[in-house]
Specification:
4-stranded antiparallel beta sheet; globular
């Protein structure tokens, strides 16, 4: 084959290979990338839809039964009462007290002899005394913090989270309010009389023990009145007469209940009224509510106050009103079950008695409506969602709703 033919063949083959069009390549690459992006977005959307569906199903799930995941025998003497102390359990009777964790392990025992034990709890600290006695045992959930001995009969006690305790002591003509540290040292004392201040119906310390709220009841020209007074034991209060930094008078009403929710929010409950006070130095009156019905019961924690009324009309016997620490009404709930306790935890609350239990969320969803398998004395939420510790007459059980 001569050179001319070979040259023509090569040129012909070269013409068969088209040069790469740069614009076409970039278009294909763009389409490939968009296709990959669309597939990735589709996968993300599907995953998000699945997660949302699972969340909605979980959020709206209503439990109908429970499993006992742990059972511990818990033999107690007759007359033993159980209350929570932090996430542990305090059991007390006339003969002594003990603290247990949620698994039934005894952390400490305290023996004593009392005729009518009274107990105050704040956070993880408890104070135990005998009504008309003269000794107060101050305990944390881990150990004994100290003992206070008084020289006058004890009428009531209230403990702060740091173990400082306020004690109402009865004298012949005078009622004393004394403040002690956990070791029994007297920090502050002031006396009250029916003529000058009234009788202290309720005394409460703030968790840090720097504020004290006292509800006095007195009679003025034949009319029953109440006064809610606030005392400050910090530097601000030391510059005030008798540490008194504020007081509010209420006519023709009895205020037997005053409590602190935290170091700067307190509330008081009258026969048919609810008042909130705000301030860490000088509490000022905030929200005030007056009711047409008499308040039947009061329950609270650091976030919510619950008031129970008897319904005058309607199918349900009771109405629960829930207020937050800002003093706002956040929920109303009618219910028909007889109750022994109402417990707030997180954004849920429990209404229960010895036989039955209702669990609601704050946004109104019913999570559980069922019966206990044994008679229950106390119900305590745990760290795990919808897992609880229940105390019966002879056992301590951990249950998981299902």
């Amino acid at each position: 084959m001569d050179e001319k033919k070979r040259s023509k063949i090569k040129q012909s083959k070269l013409r068969l290979v088209k040069p790469l069009d740069e614009g076409t390549f970039e278009e294909k690459l763009r389409k490939h990338r968009l296709s990959f992006l669309y597939r990735a977005l589709l996968v993300i959307v599907v995953c998000m839809a699945l997660v949302l569906m699972i969340y909605i199903l979980y959020r709206n799930k209503k439990y109908t039964d429970y499993d006992v995941v742990r059972h511990v025998d818990n033999i107690t003497v007759a007359g033993t009462e159980s209350i929570p102390i932090g996430n542990s359990i305090l059991e007390f009777s006339k003969d002594g007290a003990r603290c247990m964790d949620g698994e039934g392990n005894v952390i400490w025992n305290q023996t004593y002899e009392m005729q009518n034990p009274i107990v105050s709890v704040c956070g993880e600290v408890a104070a135990i005394a005998d009504y008309n006695g003269r000794t107060i045992y101050i305990q944390s959930k881990e150990k004994q913090l100290g003992t206070v001995t008084t020289n006058l009969p004890i009428r009531s006690i209230n403990v702060a989270a740091n173990g400082v305790v306020a004690v109402v002591l009865e004298d012949t003509q005078t009622t004393w309010i004394n403040i002690y540290d956990p070791k029994g040292n007297e920090l502050v004392k002031f006396h009250t009389t029916m003529k000058n201040t009234g009788y202290p119906a309720s005394v409460c310390l703030s968790p840090d023990a720097l504020l004290c709220a006292v509800s006095y009841i007195y009679v003025d020209e034949g009319v029953i009145k109440s006064r809610v007074a606030f005392y400050n034991f910090d530097e601000y209060g030391k510059n005030q007469t008798d540490n008194l930094v504020g007081g509010y008078d209420y006519t023709d009403t009895v205020i037997p209940y005053v409590k602190f929710m935290n170091n700067s929010v307190a509330f008081a409950v009258g026969d048919e009224s609810l008042m909130f006070y705000n301030g860490s130095q000088k509490p000022e009156l905030g929200s005030v509510y007056y009711f047409a019905s008499r308040i039947r019961s009061v329950f609270h924690n650091e976030n919510y106050v619950g008031l129970v009324f008897e319904n005058r009309s309607g199918e349900n016997k009771y109405c629960l009103e829930i207020y937050n620490k800002s003093g706002n009404l956040v929920k109303k709930r009618d219910f028909n079950m007889e109750y022994t306790d109402i417990v707030f935890y997180g954004d849920n609350y429990i209404i229960y008695n010895e036989e039955n239990c209702l669990i609601y969320t704050m946004d109104g969803r019913l999570k559980y409506d069922g019966a206990f398998k044994e008679s229950v004395k106390m119900m305590l939420p745990s760290q795990t969602k919808f897992r609880y510790t229940i105390i019966t007459d002879d056992s301590l059980e951990t249950i998981q709703l299902k």
